[in-house]
Amino acid sequence: MSSILMHAPALVIALPLLAAFITPVIGRFNRKAISWFVAFILGLTLLLTLLIARHILSNGSLIYVFGASEVGLTLPSGYTVPIRIIFHIDGMGIFMGLITAVVSFLAAVYSISFMEQHSGLEKYYTLLLLLATGMFGMEFTGDIFNFFVFLEIASIASVALIAFRSTLFDEPAEAGFKYMVVSSIAALMVLFAVGLFYGQYGVLNMATIAKVLQFTHLDKIALILLLTVLAMKAGSVPMHMWTPDAYSEAPAAITMVLVAASQASLYALFRVAFSLYNVTLNTLTVGWIIIILGVLSMFIGVTMAIIQKDIKRLMAYHAISQTGYMLLGVGVGLAVLANPVALEKFGIKAMEGGIFHIMNHAMYKGLLFLTAGALFYRTGTRDLNKMGGLAHNMFYTTIFFIIGAAAIAGIPPFNGFASKLIIYESVYQFNPLLSIIAMLVSILTLASFVKVFHSAFLGPKLEQYKSVQEVPKSMVVAMATLACIIVFFGLFPDLIVKYIVHPAVMALINQAQYTATILGGM
Amino acid sequence: MNIGLLETGSGYWNALIWIIVTVVVGIAVLWLRSKGEEKYKKNTNQTKPFLSGNPEVSKEDSHVGASHIYWGFTEALKKYYEPLVKLHTGDINDYSGWIILMMAIIFIIVGVS
Questions:
Q1: Which of A29, A97, A238, A347 has its CA 20 to 30 A from that of A123?
Q2: Is residue A151 part of a domain?
Q3: Is the pTM of this model over 0.80?
Q4: 8 Å CB contact between A141 and A147
């Protein structure tokens, strides 16, 4: 193993973290260089993540023990439990890491032009780097207290970024405040759950907790706390109300990263349910709780989206709705986890659909938020009632919007269709009604995006937008990259499922493998 | 060769085949269209929209705004939408309340299961 690969898990965190503190220094000398520097750092992080992904997908999990004489030494001589902070990156962790790496890099590229006219760029980019650090940490760590720390880093950076455009106590500040309150509640509950584990078992390593967990009353309380607040952070109905506020007020590139940050919480929810508790809990009951949260999110999210007039609020409600699909797919997998026949027959496929949808959603919802940002950049409004005829002047943005909208509505041959099809077919075998609701939600999603397309892009040129031009190149490049990923995933979904999604699902299901990687044959 | 062939659990999906079929159907539709009637007079009443005999409004005034789209849908579902919209108060106290309420519900369900 090359030394770069050996230390890549630490470098993925260290690079953006160190760059976050170097950025203001660079800003003192050359304001314009900040954006390029951050894009370079996040590009480098993406390369490192790809390197880790290649290693994990061919050789299995990657372990990084901080402070040990060897990076893979989980149990020093004489110890029966891990005492150091360990990064434990398996198929699921790197799946999420890839999403974070792509999205944060493209956010930086998009921001080169999008944020050019804004003041306080050094703060903006420092916070973006810290947000990326927090998300990577949440996805890579194998230590539950360390997870709490990274959750806090991501949350605090997110709060500041949501309120970034605030001039006084206006809407972005209010949205940032609301996100701060709900994030604080989440962080407190996570910390409380960590305390319950540590108080009982005296360990913080997740694999070790999974090994010794007895599902006591305290473990049940920890599960309830984690399940609720992580579902809330993922934007699940009825705890979703912070989402439209935060997503609509944050700068467009940040909204795209916030979607991925919410998915990092969703990942943590799945990690807790599968890797930490697995069959020790009543999987059918907890699986149904996740399924019901998913169905509520799908339906209420999409019906609330249809009546919105603010383009980003509308898209935010769709983000809630799409999270429902992920909860549904993975919830079905959890519900049948203790039933090997059903798990083999449709449970694994349902999970593949749900997990594949996480990646697809990050790509097309990211693209849609960037197109909304492009419209705002040129028109200065998010109000769909004030838009119209923009397809005449913004050709590329229009094409990218069509691709994103078709993908989210589940129209073939785009990526959203592939993951939704897997969800429909596998969930149907569990409960046909759930599958029918999922299809109905897709139809409503299409209707909603037809509304956006008609309102913003179609119709004659409006007088006030006659001089509007296409957005600058860096914004087009970011959108084009996401559009290409969407088309590629749509044309070759088998490759993505086989090489990235299936290993992620198996890493979640196989708790014995998860614990054995850290604890060996104990 | 199975490039692009996705196993969905109950069947298969191949986007490449779908594209080929779409292109073939598209060509067939265009061919059928080319066989249609061409003898219409351009720039006469034959090519103008007919709006129940009323004069056509200018293109700038004919664009339907976002608020008016799906008016019938939302009007028909008024009883669903009114309470749903009311629940979205925008008040952070309510946001926190929903978290606590959900925690309590999940506590009861997991507790008794």
A1: A97
A2: no
A3: yes
A4: yes
Using a CB-CB cut-off of 8 Å, the residues of chain B touching A445 are: none
Contact A410, A486 (CB under 8 A): no
Cβ count within 10 A of residue A208: 26
ipTM: 0.92
Q: What is the pLDDT of residues A355-406, one digit of tens each?
A: 999 999 999 999 999 999 999 999 999 999 999 999 999 999 999 999 999 9
In whole angstroms, give the CA distance from residue A377 to residue A260: 22
> Which residues of A, range 164-203, sit inside 8 Å of B by Cβ?
177-178, 181-182, 185, 189
CB A385 within 8 A of CB B66: yes
* Cβ pair B60:A425 closer than 8 A: no
Which structural domain, as residue segments, surrounds residue A378? 282-491
Asked if residue A261 belongs to a domain, the reply is: no
Q: How far is B77 from chain A (nearest CA, A)?
A: 10
Q: Is A87 helix (H, G, I), strand (E, B) or coil?
A: strand
Cα–Cα separations (whole angstroms), residue A340 to A114, A226, A279, A346, A509: 50, 26, 11, 10, 11
Amino acid letter at A508? L
pLDDT tens for A232-279 read 999 999 999 999 999 999 999 999 999 999 999 999 999 999 999 998
Q: Is the dihedral angle over the CA atoms A189, A190, A193, A198 positive or is it negative?
A: negative
The total number of residues written for chain B in this structure = 113
**Domain contains A274:** no
**Is A103 in contact with A260 (CB distance < 8 Å)?**
yes
- In chain A, the number of structural domains is 1
Residue A444 covered by a domain: yes
Structure tokens at A84: 């150091």
Pairwise CA distance, residues B55 & A255, whole Å: 45
Which class for B86: exposed (0-12), middle (13-18), buried (19 or more C-beta within 10 A)? exposed
